Amino acid sequence: MKKTFCLCVILLILANISFAQVSLIGELTREATLQPGEKFEGEITLKNRGETPWEVTVYKNDYLFYADGTIIYGEPGEAARTNAGWLSLSPNALTILPDETASIFYTLQVPDDQDLSGTYWSIIMIEPTSETGPQVLEDKEHKLKIGIQTRVRYAVQIITNIGDAGAPEINFLDKKLIHQDGKRILQLDVENSGERWLSPAVRVELYDDSGNRMARSESKKKRIYPECSVRYDVDLTEVPPGDYRALVVLDNGDEHVFGAQYDLRIQ
Q1: How confident is the model over 216-248, as pLDDT tens digits?
Q2: Closest to 220 (Cα-Cα) out of 228, 231, 207, 229
Q3: Which residues pair with 177 in a beta bridge?
Q4: CA distances from residue 211 to 130, 214, 247, 250, 260 in whole angstroms, order as listed
Q5: What is the CA radius of gyration of the chain?
Q6: Superfamily assignment of 2-162 in CATH?
Q7: Which residues pair with 108 in a beta bridge?
Q8: Looking at the whole model, is its pTM more than 0.85?
Q9: Where in the chain are the domains?
Q10: How crowded is the C-beta side of 75, counted as CA atoms within 13 Å?
Q11: Helix (H) or strand (E) holding 6
Q12: Which is nearest to 32 in space by CA: 41, 23, 24, 19?
């Protein structure tokens, strides 16, 4: 009986979810190349596409992510390469009327510190919240219905590149051949061990003992901030069983290309 009651409540809640109608206009990534002591000003535009006013709160977070899927939205200013302390926002809260647009202004003031070099970043969190909270209603048959409202957050990444950092560096952390959803996947964990953010795509080429290329597969680009890591999934489902030499190439789309070689047995 208890299970049935819980299921009914869940169904009633799902039937009455209210989704935010505030949308962000423009890119979710804002990048500026500055020198120590310089300032940059930007604007984020929001639009209320709904029929009721929406309140919006604005705040900052640090942002780190790792190959195992861990994402950390840390307190602003804690991460080693955060620029949250350089960032000021106005306003921190606003109300957007139906079918109207509103702006959030941000100023990025880089400290006058000549030791600064490389990429620094944080995120601006924009959270629309309805003017009314959860509702308890009764239908015509006087049965209790519960309504909830979701919070849809936008995370705008604010990236600052300073000076001419040293050569970008990539660290190949781990490799693993797995079977997933009927496919054979090569998982590659990669860390950015340099000072500047990268956005490489990965390419895997397989060669037999005679040096003949037997397969070639690619994965999409992924952004990697310094001290962060990502996991690439490369589909090798169509590769026949055998022993191969795998050439792994990470191409950043510029002069920076990174490579590694592995012995790979496909069964």
Answers
A1: 999 999 999 999 999 999 999 999 999 999 999
A2: 231
A3: 186
A4: 62, 9, 11, 21, 16
A5: 24
A6: Immunoglobulins (2.60.40.10)
A7: 40, 87
A8: no
A9: 2-162, 170-266
A10: 1
A11: helix 2-15
A12: 41
Using DSSP bridges, classify how beta strands 71-72 and 64-65 pair: parallel, antiparallel or unpaired.
antiparallel
Look up tokens 């924009």; give the residue: 126
Span 112-154, pLDDT tens digits: 999 999 999 999 999 988 654 444 445 556 555 555 555 678 9
DSSP state letter for 18 = B
Contact between 4 and 11 (Cβ < 8 Å): no
Q: How far is residue 91's CA from residue 88's CA, in Å, rounded to a whole number?
A: 9
* Centroid of chain to Cα 20: 20
Q: Residue 185 corresponds to which tokens in the numbers above?
A: 């996947």
SS3 assignment, position 224 = strand
**Count of CB atoms situated within 10 Å of the CB of 210:** 6
**Domain 170-266 in the same topology as domain 2-162:** yes
- Topology given in CATH for the domain delimited by 170-266: Immunoglobulin-like (2.60.40)
Q: Are strands 242-251 and 257-266 parallel, antiparallel or unpaired?
A: antiparallel
